[in-house]
Design goal:
CATH architecture: 3-Layer(aba) Sandwich
Order of helices and strands: EHEHEHEHEHEHEH
CATH class: Alpha Beta
Number of domains: 1
Structural class: alpha/beta
Number of helices: 7
Distance between the termini: 11 Å
Length: 186
């Protein structure tokens, strides 16, 4: 039976204004490590990225980062990772993260997180991959995305079956269970 091994997590280089975001990132990292799931992420040592990676590593888990040289030069790369892939550009970063993962999770974040999430969803819609995609919706952070997708569907820009390209959960354990179920069903 096929199982998820490595999950790419998109999340903020900021911790956000609500401490619940960092707590959710920490809980997700702990849950991933306890299940033997590896982390693939943007390699940052700050914000939710740093919290998540630190939580995975503190539980004895494996964290792999992918980061452009420009961000390494700004001293933003986490130095405690099992593997750090330094790439030339953001496009190469996303391609490498995709190559290394079996599934995706989006935590709260800013423009970069949204761009990465929407690209993964678009690639799945177009058939470039069939990897499960999940959103950990902390404190209603992603409620607007649900509303936006409903509007796109209502106004004829989104087919009803495309709404199932990702799912949302508010609990890390339930999210990981559903990701595993979707991965096995592929």
């Amino acid at each position: 039976m096929r199982t998820v091994r490595d999950i790419c997590v998109f999340c903020g280089a900021s911790a956000g204004s609500d401490p619940a975001y960092a707590e959710a990132a920490r809980a997700l990292g702990q849950a991933m490590a306890s299940r033997g799931l590896g982390l693939v992420y943007g390699a940052g040592n700050i914000g939710l990225m740093g919290v998540l990676a630190d939580a995975v590593l503190a539980e004895g888990g494996r964290a792999v980062g992918v980061i452009p040289q420009k961000l390494v030069d700004r001293e933003l790369a986490h130095q405690g990772l099992a593997k750090l892939h330094v790439v030339a550009a953001m496009h190469e970063r996303k391609e490498k993260m995709h190559e290394l993962c079996d599934a995706y999770i989006a935590l709260p974040g800013g423009i970069g997180t949204m761009e990465e999430f929407f690209e993964a969803v678009t690639w799945r819609q177009l058939g470039y991959h069939n990897k499960p995609i999940a959103v950990l919706n902390i404190g209603g952070f992603y409620d607007g995305i649900e509303s936006f997708f409903a509007t796109m569907q209502r106004d004829g820009f989104l087919h009803s079956d495309h709404r199932d390209l990702f799912f949302m959960e508010t609990d890390a354990a339930r999210l990981l269970d559903r990701l595993a179920d979707q991965f096995r069903a592929r």
